Automatic annotation (TrEMBL), chain A:
It is an enzyme of class 2 (transferase). Keywords: ATP-binding, Kinase, Nucleotide-binding, Phosphoprotein, Transferase, Two-component regulatory system. It catalyses: ATP + protein L-histidine = ADP + protein N-phospho-L-histidine. It comes from Sphingomonas echinoides. Residues 13-59, 141-211 form the PAS domain. Residues 88-140 form the PAC domain. Gene3D superfamilies: 1.10.287.130, 6.10.250.2580, Histidine kinase-like ATPase, C-terminal domain, PAS domain. This is histidine kinase. It comes from the Bacteria. InterPro entries: HATPase_C_sf, HATPase_dom, His_kinase_dom, HisK_dim/P_dom, HisK_dim/P_sf, PAS, PAS-assoc_C, PAS-like_dom_sf.
Automatic annotation (TrEMBL), chain B:
Keywords: Phosphoprotein. The modification 4-aspartylphosphate is found at residue 63. This is Response regulator. The keyword Phosphoprotein applies.
Amino acid sequence: MIEGDKANRHDAASGTILQVVESAPNYAVYALDLGGLVTVWNKGCEDITGWASSDAIGKHHSFLYCAEDVAAGVADRHLAQVEQLGRVEQESWRVRKNGSEFLAHLTTTALRDETGQLSGYGKILRDTTDEAATKEAIVAREQHLQSILDTVPDAMVIIDERGLITSFSAAAERLFGYSEADVLGANVSSLMPSPDRERHDSYIGRYLSTGERRIIGIGRIVVGQRSDGTTFPMELSIGEAGHRGYRVFTGFIRDLTESDRNELQLKELQAELIHVSRLSAMGTMASTLAHELNQPLTAIANYLETTRDLLVDPDAETVAIVRDALDEAAKESHRAGHIVRRLRDFVARGETEKRIEDLPRLIEEASALGLVGARERGVRSFFDFDPAASPVLADRIQVQQVLVNLIRNAVEAMAQVAIRDLTITTRRRPKGMVQVSVADTGPGISEQVAPQLFEAFVSSKTDGMGLGLSICRTIIEAHGGRIWTEGAPNGGAAFHFTLMQARPEDEHDA
Amino acid sequence: MGVIDHQASEKAALILLSDDDASVRRSLHLLLRSRGFGVLAYASGTALLLDPQMQSGDCLVVDYLMPDIDGISILRQLRSAGWCGPAILITAHYADTLAESAREAGFAAVLEKPLRDGVLVQTIGEVISAGRRAGSDHC
């Protein structure tokens, strides 16, 4: 009785299993006897291979193998392996009834009876051709993307919302001197010097909480730091991708060390040339004007001498003549004044194109360029920006040229001293002006040179033409500002210049 | 967006593929499948000719030199069985004379192995759309 119950339950259980097996259309489930002949063949087998169970039952399972595998004895070796290991999973190519191939994922299990004796083999097979093709397409796409990243000349760094690096292009490896493996998972702040290094997490945090874009989609010039600690100016543009909890930021970086230094040098040379040619033109102009000025001055002198003589013994008639002569003298002096005005207009004629500029940003960019190599020389830089002292009306490139000039002079001046601190300050001044100061801790300016410092061809440097500060003055005066120097409180030199603050109504002209 | 880009506008073209070199055949199989083509791949030309399903193929891609039957003879037999699709011959032994006899036999293109990136997929697209424009004039 008891034996019979057990047998019934066993039959019921295997009946359920058979139903499950039958209803799995994407899975071919079949079994083999010890000799490798098919004993069970479900509907999924027919769907996938094309062989009906009437074709398959009793056949040696090698009919599913490719001809070359059959010839090589793969089918028999496979069963021997399963017997030894108990279970084998594999991915390999099989043939359908119609002779076409598919990639199969197969799990083969050794079946044993109650005594542990091998009784046959159970097989579960799935067509994985499309999965493999998909994987291949993904790999191909990744390789394609990688090949693009490898050849893009600009360095590319991708970070996640926490600022951790998730991708580092080949150009980035060359630029920063790290390999991708070194920096994956590291905070991107390690690629920048202080103070950005300490603040970068808060930059991201501020953007994530406020959405206010200060650099994303805008781009600006910042300072990067290489693995050996040296720094360099770079142009950074950042793009943003992804959404809701998985955002990434992609930074494209162009090294400005060479390109911008060259460009800046070229611009400096150009400015010097223009300045020199203007000076020489002014020389020609001056001699012409001196001649022209002589005419009215001579006339005035003549009139005045005549009136003086006439006034020795004045009568009514002489008074009338004197009045006429003085009228003429007055006219001549106006003529002289007109000539002087023409000269001033000529000197003041410059090609400035003023726009509304954010002053801290303008200064930061100029500093990134002017301070190239300065950190390595032990120069510390400090910035003190008055929020009320911005924006300004300025030709950005020209004013940056002035700043780069002053910064370079300051760095050079501090070469021989122990403390090398450079401080750039902005302050709001009366009458709508803004003052920018560049102070150093160098030896200061000697009282002999100071008065003529801004004249052309005056230089305390052996290799300078003495045009730098004279150009600075031309630029600042063309901006309606003033440039001067004085001793810094801590003994070094301080250069100050003023610019016009931009008022909101200037917006329309910008 | 799926990685396999199934051609949206039309039913995926079915490619009949035969090359006796398993590594070439299987890598092309996966490549074409990943580009959205349906693929019937056969280890031998005989297997292809024996499969009644080959009639529904839209394009034949076949190796020239195979042990049982060469690619040109395969196309001849397919044509005489009434199959009218465009055909591409691939071969590691390219020669102008071979290309000429292939074209005479009705191949729309002859490609030299190894196949450069994307050439096969591009050529398949070209010969199928050229075949559609011309109607079934391959027979």
